[in-house]
Amino acid sequence: MIRSLRDKLDTGELMLIALARSHGIAWTRIADALEMRNRQSAERRHLQLNRARMAACPAPRANESRTSASAGPGAPKGSGPGNTPRAGAPWRRQRATQAQ
Fold it and tell me: What residues make up the domain containing 38?
């Protein structure tokens, strides 16, 4: 019973941290709210909670791993996850040409 309550608290804490970050709240403010010393402590706690959640989830079966992550049947070849161009690359190229 205590273990299940601890798991619920951890899940709630992880969700609240993720919600705060999605709203642009700084790690220092999150650390203050969690009564932690500094932002690194809050980030470390977030990573711990996330790792624990991922460890508790079962791994996908072998036949599901590729099909669930594919880009879809009509997508061009090489357009699946991990094959996308870097988000900042076009911007950097544009800035480099303007600087010359």
Answer: 2-57
